[in-house]
């Protein structure tokens, strides 16, 4: 869901922006900053420990969408510890919980 959330957020922007993304997802941060260039260079495949050869990247469709969505922007990616009282992380948790409750008919 973190990948989808950032894709949708970037798509909502109407012009190129300078952005700071705080994320508690190491998968998202490492994926976009470290792994994605290697995946692209290797035909969207990755090495898997203990397995010979290469395997397709998981969530390749989302990573490809994110790769397209980041192109017009200058983005700095920072990891923040989840549930560690970071104000932005707390706000996101609140909004996500409220939206989930609304989806199942409960009020917050």
List the helices and strands and how they pair.
Elements: H1 2-11, E1 18-23, H2 26-41, E2 45-47, E3 54-56, H3 60-70, E4 74-79, H4 87-103
Parallel strand pairs: 1-4
Antiparallel strand pairs: 2-3
Helix pairs in contact: 1-3
Summarize the structure.
The protein is an alpha+beta fold and about 110 residues long. It has helices at about 1-10, 25-40, 60-70, 85-105; strands at about 20-25, 45, 55, 75-80.
- Count of distinct structural domains: 1
CATH architecture: 2-Layer Sandwich
Instruction: Classify the oligomer.
Output: single chain
Whole-Å distance between the termini? Answer: 22 Å
Order of helices and strands: HEHEEHEH
Q: Total strand count, please?
A: 4
Shape assignment: globular
Q: What do the pLDDT scores average to? A: 88
Backbone structural class: alpha+beta
State the helicity in percent bands: 40-55%
- Looking at CATH, the homologous superfamily is Ribonuclease H-like superfamily/Ribonuclease H
State Rg: 16 Å
User: Which regions contain 5 or more consecutive residues with pLDDT less than 50?
Assistant: none
Largest sheet: 2 strands, parallel
| Beta-strand percentage range | 15-25%
Instruction: State the CATH topology.
Output: Nucleotidyltransferase, domain 5
CATH class: Alpha Beta
List the total number of helices: 4
**Could you give the order of strands across the largest sheet?**
1-4
